[in-house]
Every structure is written in structure tokens, then in C-alpha cells.
């Protein structure tokens, strides 16, 4: 049997595109409370079924199919290669499948070209024509134009023909770089990936009596709840300490802590974790740009996500991955020593190791040492370089970290860096462990 929430979602799905939706009308049509209708409409917005705009209201929209983030559209390719669209503009929103470099004979090329591919070629019109007829877009390198016949064919097939002044090698490198960057972005887990949706979020209104906090506390065992106004904007947080402090208050508004710390759906889980640790919060409200409540994240959800990230295979190699692969551990007992080889990717424009790479190397070493002493997730609170000399390419850096202080919650480390026995850097690092709940 369908729940009321599911009935409302189905009702919204069956509305015509462009239909206006209101909480009151939906509640009346389905004979449910306005609170239930509101929650379902917000959930429908999250699913992409409706959109809310100021002075317009909530409108039923066409649900967009989410495409894989590692895919690029032809429109993106135009921007990547600083290109000019010669024809087939209607197909710019299509997604690029593969790209093929047309530097081979036509018979050999036929084995590789397919629908929604991108043929990268010079001024070979026969190849351009064949690609379009096979359902592939065309990227013409070297700044060449093409004939009116090819442009008309592009318009007829709805496949873009793009011209760029770059050579074939540069174009392929740029597209590869863009796909590679997308793969790295795909690995980053955001708040929207783990948050408790609005439909399942418990909250209180400013005008609620304090007994409402006790009801929710008994129901969920949570002690912190977001406080919203009549417009569903988050205006505060009410926690156990607030309720205990003023037991004679009439409304939640007089108890709550105003201007609460919030996150938005695009905040990374790592940033949210740091905020929770720094402030000592067990949960954070998730809001949109107008501060409307979208959901909640809890420390438990964040911990699960961080542990999941660590178990995932890497798809795009970041600077941190490169640094980690270059570290060699020569530690014995409690005497920690690491060697780090400097590769060309790590250099700045002067040929020295960039400050960012050095920072990443130090934090990676310290994480390994602290996790060796105590297993668990941690966040870096502070890293201070107080001595630093340039380190050249292909040199080997010896890293000697020393634990200055170790408590249940914190770790403090002193790090010394050597090249050929000469001191080249000193740093101090503080970290906080995340308790597992």
C-alpha cells in the first residue's frame, strides 16, 4: 500500500509540465495535512520534478535524466578548444561518447567511429561527411573551414561541426585533460550524496512549545534540531543545553541559538567533517541559497562516507595520489623516516617543488604516522611552515616526523625535511581525531 508521501509524488508526476503547484491545493486534493504536502513537494524538487522560483511559485518541470559526470557535452568541447561552431548547433547539448583521431585511412577509421563520437580531423571532407552520416560530430583542427555541403549535412543530422585553430595533438590533450578532471570531481563526495532528505528530517518551528523538543528527542534520540520560520528558512538550532537552561520558556524561539552553522548540498563531506569537529556538532542543517531547509547530515553519516571514500579505487589521479605513490617508508619502531622523490609534475615555474606539493607531502606523512599510532579518521587543524628552502627536481627528500603530543582527540607533530643531509624545511602540524559513533 502506498504511503501518503508516495501518493503525492505520483500525483505530481502525473501533472502536466508547466502546472503550478501549491501546498494548500495539493493537501486539499489528496486530503492530507499541509505539512505532509510540503515535505513531498520539497522531495519532488530534489528529484527534479518541480522547480521553485521567486514571484513565480512552484512549477512542474520535465525531469532531467542525470548524466554521468565523466561525460562531456559537445558544447563543453567548444569551450575547451576555443572553437567555432560551423553547423549542427542543435546537437551541442549531446554527450560525447568517445573521440577518434582521423589520421588513418578511411577503411581503418570505419572500425572506430560510432554514434555520438567526436571525429578529430583536418580538412578531409570525405572523413567529415562519413563521420556525420555515422552519427558522430566533427572537430576540424588547424583553423580550417569546411564546405557549405558539410554544414548543411551537420544541420540535417543535428550533429555539430566545430573548427579550432589548435593542432590535433593539442586538441586531444585538452579533451583528455577535461575528462580526467571530471573523473577526479566524480570521486569527491558532497553533502548532497549523504544527507538525510527533507522528507525524513525532524525540525521545529519558532512558535512551537519546548515540549516539541522532548517529543522529537524521545522519537529519534537526537538532541539537536533545526529551527525554521513560517517560510521554512533555518533561523536557529535548539539543543538539549538550550532546553535545560530555560525550562520556563513559552516558545522554541526564546530558547534557540540563532544564526546556526549550516552547509549546502555542494559542500564536500571533508569540509563538513572539519566543521563538525571544529565546532563539536553531531549534526548540521543542509540549506539552499535562500536558507530553506533541505535536510540534515549527522556525524555518523559523515564518518561512513569518509570510510567509503578510503575504500574506493582511484579513478583520477590527484596531486595527493602522486605524492603518496612517491613516499617510501623506512620507519623502525617509533623512529619514523620517509623518503620522497621529486618528479616533474611537482615543480613550480622555477623548477622547485611547489609549496602546495610540499604541504600535501607533509600532511600525507603525518596521517600515516598518526594512523599507525591510533586507527581512525582525522582532520588537519593547522599546518605551519617556519623554515623552507627550495628543493629541486629529481632530488630525494628525507622526512623525519616527531610526535610532540598525543591525546585521545589531538595529535601534534614536528616535521623536519632534509636533502643530502642538509636541513631544508621545518613545520608544525596539529590534527584532531574524529570519534566513531
From TrEMBL:
Keyword Cell membrane: no
SUPFAM superfamilies attached to this UniProt entry: CBS-domain pair (SSF54631), HprK N-terminal domain-like (SSF75138), Thioesterase/thiol ester dehydrase-isomerase (SSF54637)
Highest taxon listed in the record's lineage: Bacteria
The CBS domain, residue ranges: 195-254, 256-314
Keywords recorded for this protein, A-Z: CBS domain
UniProt keyword annotation of Transmembrane helix present: no
Protein name stated in the entry: CBS domain-containing protein
Organism (species): Sporolactobacillus inulinus CASD
Amino acid at each position: 500500500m502506498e504511503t501518503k508521501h508516495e501518493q503525492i509524488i505520483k500525483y505530481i508526476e502525473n501533472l502536466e509540465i508547466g502546472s503550478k503547484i501549491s501546498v494548500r491545493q495539493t493537501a486539499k486534493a489528496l486530503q492530507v495535512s499541509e505539512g505532509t504536502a510540503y515535505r513531498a513537494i520539497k522531495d519532488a524538487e530534489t528529484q527534479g520534478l518541480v522547480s521553485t522560483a521567486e514571484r513565480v511559485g512552484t512549477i512542474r518541470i520535465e525531469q532531467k535524466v542525470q548524466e554521468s559526470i565523466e561525460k562531456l557535452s559537445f558544447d563543453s568541447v567548444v569551450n575547451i578548444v576555443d572553437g567555432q561552431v560551423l553547423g549542427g548547433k542543435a546537437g551541442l547539448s549531446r554527450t560525447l561518447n568517445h573521440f577518434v583521431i582521423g589520421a588513418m585511412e578511411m577503411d581503418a577509421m570505419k572500425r572506430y567511429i560510432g554514434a555520438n563520437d567526436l571525429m578529430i580531423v583536418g580538412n578531409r571532407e570525405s572523413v567529415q561527411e562519413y563521420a556525420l552520416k555515422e552519427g558522430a560530430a566533427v572537430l576540424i583542427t588547424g583553423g580550417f573551414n569546411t564546405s557549405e555541403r558539410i554544414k548543411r549535412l551537420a544541420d540535417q543530422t543535428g550533429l555539430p561541426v566545430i573548427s579550432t585553430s589548435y593542432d590535433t595533438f593539442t586538441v586531444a590533450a585538452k579533451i583528455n585533460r577535461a575528462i580526467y578532471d571530471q573523473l577526479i570531481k566524480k570521486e569527491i563526495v558532497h553533502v548532497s550524496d549523504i544527507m538525510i532528505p527533507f522528507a525524513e528530517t525532524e525540525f521545529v518551528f519558532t512558535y512551537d512549545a519546548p515540549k516539541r523538543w522532548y517529543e522529537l528527542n524521545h522519537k529519534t534520540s537526537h538532541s539537536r534540531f533545526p529551527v525554521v520560520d513560517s517560510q521554512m528558512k533555518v533561523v536557529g538550532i535548539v539543543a538539549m543545553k538550550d532546553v535545560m537552561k530555560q525550562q520556563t520558556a513559552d516558545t522554541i524561539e526564546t530558547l534557540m541559538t540563532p544564526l546556526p552553522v549550516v552547509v549546502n548540498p555542494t559542500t564536500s563531506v571533508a569540509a563538513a567533517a572539519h566543521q563538525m569537529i571544529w565546532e563539536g556538532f553531531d549534526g548540521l542543517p543542509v540549506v539552499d541559497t535562500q536558507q530553506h531547509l533541505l535536510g540534515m547530515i549527522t556525524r555518523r553519516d559523515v564518518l561512513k562516507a569518509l570510510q567509503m571514500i578510503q575504500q574506493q579505487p582511484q579513478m583520477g589521479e590527484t596531486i595527493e595520489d602522486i605524492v603518496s605513490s612517491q613516499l617510501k617508508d623506512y620507519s623502525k619502531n617509533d623512529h619514523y623516516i620517509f623518503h620522497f622523490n621529486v618528479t616533474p609534475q611537482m615543480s613550480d615555474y622555477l623548477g622547485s617543488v611547489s609549496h602546495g606539493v610540499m604541504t600535501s607531502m607533509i600532511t600525507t606523512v603525518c596521517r600515516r604516522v598518526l594512523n599507525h599510532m591510533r586507527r581512525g579518521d582525522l582532520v588537519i587543524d593547522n599546518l605551519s611552515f617556519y623554515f623552507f628552502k627550495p628543493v629541486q627536481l629529481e632530488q630525494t627528500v628525507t622526512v623525519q616526523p616527531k610526535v610532540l603530543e598525543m591525546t585521545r582527540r589531538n595529535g601534534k607533530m614536528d616535521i623536519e625535511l632534509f636533502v643530502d643531509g642538509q636541513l631544508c624545511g621545518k613545520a608544525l602540524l596539529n590534527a584532531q581525531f574524529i570519534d566513531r559513533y
